[in-house]
Structure formats: C-alpha cells, structure tokens
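To whoever is covering the structure queue this week,

Two jobs came back overnight. Logging them here so there's a record in the thread.

Job A:
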Amino acid sequence: MHIHIIGICGTFMGGLAAIARSAGHKVTGCDANVYPPMSTQLRSLGIELIEGFDAQQLALRPDVFVIGNVVTRGNPLMEAILNTGAAYASGPQWLYEHMLRTRWVLGVAGTHGKTTTTSMLTFILEYAGLNPGFLIGGVPQDFENSARLTDSNFFVIEADEYDTAFFDKRSKFVHYHPRTAILNNLEYDHADIFPDVAAIQRQFHHLVRTMPGNARIIANGQDPLLAQAIGFGCWTELERFGIEQGWALNSEGVVVFGGQRYGELKIELPGEHNRMNALAAIAAARHVGITPQVSLEALARFKGVKRRMELRGLVRGVRVYDDFAHHPTAIATTVDGLKRAFPNGRILAVLEPRSNTMKLGTMKAQLPDALKHADHTFVFQGKTSWDAAEAFAPMGAKATTHSDLDQLVRAVTQMAKPEDSVLVMSNGSFGGVHEKLLTALANHVQ
C-alpha cells in the first residue's frame, strides 16, 4: 500500500510513518516545515518528503492520504482531496486498522506523564523479553527511536486526548481500543479545542465505555475527575494506583498491592509524579504477565526521556535541566521534585509559555502559584497574547519577564551560582536556550 501522510513531521505522524515503512508500505509525506531531526530520521528510512501542501501532490496517486490533525479546511491539498473524492483517513484510524487491530495494545492516557509512563512501560516489556512495538510522543533514552514495529503481539502507545483530525473531533485514544489502559490523571488542558474539563471527561468516558470486559484499566486513585469519568459507566476490570486499597508505596518506598510487598522502587527520576508513573507501569505490566519484581528491576535501569527532567549539562557547579512542563500542575510537580532532589540548592526556573493553552492565557493566573517554590523565575514573553509581567506581578521580585532571549540568558547567568539548578520549561525548542545557557555559564567570570 502507498500512503501519503499530510503533516508528516509531527511526533505522532513521523512515528506512524516509520512504523508503516517497516511494515513494508510505501510511504511519502509532506509538511509545512520539513527540517531536522524528523526530516533526517524519515529520509534515512527511505521516505520521500515534500515541502508544503500544494494540490499537485494528488499526482502521486497513493492508495490513501493519511491526514494529520495540523491540517485544516483551506489547506490546498486537503481541498483537492475532497474535491476529487480521493481516499483519506486520520492517522489514528489508519494505525489501528492496519497495525493495531490484531495486537494487544497497551495505551497510556492522561493530562500529565504520558510520555514518561509510556516509556517506562515499554522498557519494562523490553527488559522482560517481550520485544514490544511502540509509539511514544517523545524520545526515550533507552531506545534508538520514538516508534518501532516488531513481530511481537504487544504494542505500547501514548494515548493522547487531543482531537484526531478536522473531520473527527474525538480524542486520538478512542481509536486504539487498548486491552490495557493506564489513566494517569485528568485536568483541564488544550483550551484551543476543549471548552471545559467536562468535555475532556466525556472523551475519557468514550475510551472507558468502548473497552471490552476482559480488558483492564489502571487508574489514578487520587484523581476525582478521573473517578467521575469512570463513574459514568465502566464494564472493564479496574485497578487503582496511588491509594492504600490499590497499588501503593509504603513509608519505606516498597511497592505493595493486595497485601503483598514486592520490593523497593528505585528510579533515577525525581518527584512524586514519577513514582506514580512507575506504579502505573508496574500494574500495567502485570496485566501482560510480567511480575512486579521484574518491573522493579527494569525501572532501576530506566534512563528516562529526553526533555523530561533531562540534565543537559553541569557547568561550574550549576545544573541545567530541560523539561517539557507546560501546564501549571506539571510545572509545580517538576519544581517540587527538583527541590526534593537537591534541597540545599536554589531553583532558577526559566519558562516559555508556548503551548496553545499557554499562549491563549487560559491558565496564566495559576502560574505564580505553580512556581512559588522556585527561588527565582525568568519568564520569556515570546508569542503570548497576554502581558507576562502583569501575570507574574504577584511574585514580586521573585519573577522577571524578558522579551529578548539573549538578555534572559545573561540575567540567569549573572544570578546562578554553584549548587543551583536552572530548570528550563517549554514544549518547544525555545531558541536553543539550553546551549546558550551552558555556553554563557562556562564563559561567565564572577
């Protein structure tokens, strides 16, 4: 089959392309911005990439056009597809119908922690010898790529609640029909497509109500919004984590479930949220026959995910971290985890409000409280439509805003001292600020 992917350079669609190519399909694709590293990764797989969305791509005559959710009405190629009646499908729909239908799918859903938990679960299955296929919305440091297809019956996927395509406003995860589903948490996010948290709850309920009775849901027992979504109706076996009646960590850090002690959880990643992620992964792995003891062995060797509390460098005693946090809750838990890991050092937070929700300003009022435990916060104004200085005024002298990236780097460098952690938070490239900071710190003279 020849598929032509429109919007191929996104993390999900690029992963889908790699999987389809390895399955023997002919894959071509286009995007508005064809640039490394995704373009390099795709071309290395023999995938032809086209810059832009011109209607002349109809001449490729693929069996089906696979449409990414960046594509909207008015896109010239999409309009040509509709006008000529060419076959098209969304990425999640095509992936399920051609790759996942016959496999045991393990899906990881939730507002926060999807990428890390998916990577943990995938690594556990790999360590146990199950050779899983996977599609992860990030770059796991334990694997060469973010997606692969194997001959294994098991496939682990990051199950996103974002909408599927302009013609299918259901969440992506509804398409995957997991036999094992982790529901990590549920909060309001994606203000560009969801009017309120109730709309997100409905999507989670769509996932729950389409799971078979012999499947298993692993749900965060501390999350009331998840409990409500499940309470709308659940016909599937349910296990909870993070509570005494389910999967939990005792005061000694030992994993317990059903009155049985399984061993101490040892992971390199800091923070209570990562311990919760680990519990979920251990519970999900048990559903496919992996003992908790084996999962604990694997997690002790788990390296983590790029851009999730990734240490980018240590210069003159100053640690520079890169983190994807772009939601107030994720920001708060990340700061808390770093503070607990290094209680004697300061945290200098560097924030770029870049996600669609952040740029809209929907959660700007929550940001000062989310960053209250940082010793100082440097905010990059960037492309936000709201006044960052005004939003962070409640923090007083503990926050400064900057519209010039080089000036921000100088300000951080001048404040930083040994034992400090510089925590950079953005869901974009942030103008290469990490390397700029490391260079400036190395060259700085006290």
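Job B:
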Amino acid sequence: MGYLLLEDAKEIKAAQVALESTMRKEFSKSEKRSIGYPGGTTSDVKVFHDDAHWYWSADHKDGATPRKLNWVGRYQTRYDLQITVELNTPYQNRVDRAGGFFVKDIDSGQVYLMHSGRIGGGTKGVGRLAFLTWLDEVPDEVVDASGHFKDGFIVMPVQGVGAAASLKRYLEKIAEFKEWVRTGAAGTPSFERKQQKFLAYYKEARGRRKGRRSAKIDYVSRHGDVVDRLNAWRSGHPVPKGQAIVKNALIDLGVGTENALSEIFEVKTSCCRGDLYTAIGQLMVHGSSSSCKRHLVIPNEVDALPNDILLTLKLQDIQVIRYDLKPRSVELLI
C-alpha cells in the first residue's frame, strides 16, 4: 500500500467535486448559519449537517495561499458554529501551507482526503507535535510528483457509502484533543517526556529515507520488472531435485513443489510500514514450513529498517534482498 499526492489541477478539482457531493449526501440537512473562529466570523453561509457534525466549503482565491476551504465541526443549535479543523486543499501542486490534500491509493486507485495533522485554534498547547503524540497514531506516507515525501492522516475517501464515517472519527479525535489541552495536561512533565520520545521516533523514521525517490521512475509500475529480474537470477542457480521455480497470484516467486515451498520471495516497491507488515504476513502464510527460506525484496532507498521490523525479520528468519531501479533495468544487490 502507498499513496501518490494529487497535484494536477483537474484531478484535484474532480476530487473536490466528489468530496462535496459525498458530504451533501451524508450531511443531508442544510441551513444558513454563522461560523466563528479566532479573529472573525463568516456570516450567513449555507452549511450541511447531520445533527451531530457540520460541513461548509467555499473558494478562497485571495491571499498568499489560494485554496478550497473545507471546514468541519461539531453541530450545535445555539450560538455560532465553531470550526474543529480546517481541511483546506490547494487548487494545484503541492502546497504544504494548506492542511488538507488529496491522494490516490496506488493499488486500488481510490482517492482520499488527507490532513497534515496540523491543528490550530488559538489555545496554548494546541499544535501538530502535541496532537501526533496525544493521538499516538503514525501518519501515512505520501510521495509527490518530484519524488519527495510528506505524511498525513487519511480523513475519508471522497466517494463511497459511509465515506464520512472516518471523517467524523477524525473530527471527534481533534475535538477531544483540544478539550484535553484545555485541562492543562499538555504541559505536564509526563506528557512532555512522551512528546520528546515521539519526536525522537518521528525524526528517526524520517531520517531513514534517503531523501526522495527518483521522479523519473515509477516504482509501482516496475514491480513486474523486479520479479522478472529476480526470476532470471534464481533460474541461474541450481534448484533442488523434484522442485521447480513457482510463480502465481499468491506469491511473487518461490521454489518448491505444488504442495510445499522451500524458498519464497516477496517483492515490495516501498519500505513504508504498511508494505513491510503485508510482506511479512505473506511470507509467513505462504512460506509457513519451518524449512522454507523466506526473502523480503525491497528498494535500496532507506539506510536502515525500523528496529522493531529488523527484530521481527531476525526472529522469523527472513532474509532481506535490496534492489536498485535503473531507467531500463533492475540491479539486485546480492
């Protein structure tokens, strides 16, 4: 699993149109309300709601960061509505000043609205690092058109039945975080220690990346090339008597018989945790025999895998094979 940032203006517009259509279906009630926020009020605008949460969207083409406004919050009948989080998205390109952005799942093609995790609200203690530490969830990794990384949280798919369910969860988490900050707990020594621990982990995880992927090479589309190169390499070495090289819909490559494998290779096009977890699971399921030699085949794009992943690979006796993608070839680092 992995995500590509949408940067083309037409793709972003299509995603926004789908998002608005979905929200109006799921938040089927509407009325004119005023929305308050630190520094001002947006008066008499049409909001959509479901009696528990509200949504409003509008263009904002002025200022340093032109963006589509996507505001959400808890619904209330009295007083002005208050914004819980702004999921504003740029009209084109990568714009990190906008907290929201659209991405495409490289496996399914599903488009999602994501959020950077940057939380505002004017209260001391409210901020991205504090929120990430409090939430205790690891952001997903996204690759942009130039091959650089950014990360954020999946808010919701822009289409689908019940698509807004995950938005409501995310909104509620942010609201709970803000309430928690107001208790003063963010300034306690115990939370500050937790925050420093999280920051160290976060920096370590980001530091493992070698900077960026090549913008000229599509790793996902080259999965088959890696498997073919691996097949050619393994075919150049002896295969145990009575066994053969195996490849099917369930495994990338293996050696064995119809009923049992003596070797298995799982190829991944990224080293994100989701792909590593999936690969380990596939190797353990399809290479379940204690005598089966398991191999994880991954890009040579990080200096080191996370310590917990390395420990698991060691305990499960999974060997790592690295590869480099060239414009017209694949180099196995064996």
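Note for Job B: The chain has seven helices and 18 strands.

Please reply-all if you pick these up so we don't duplicate work.
Q.
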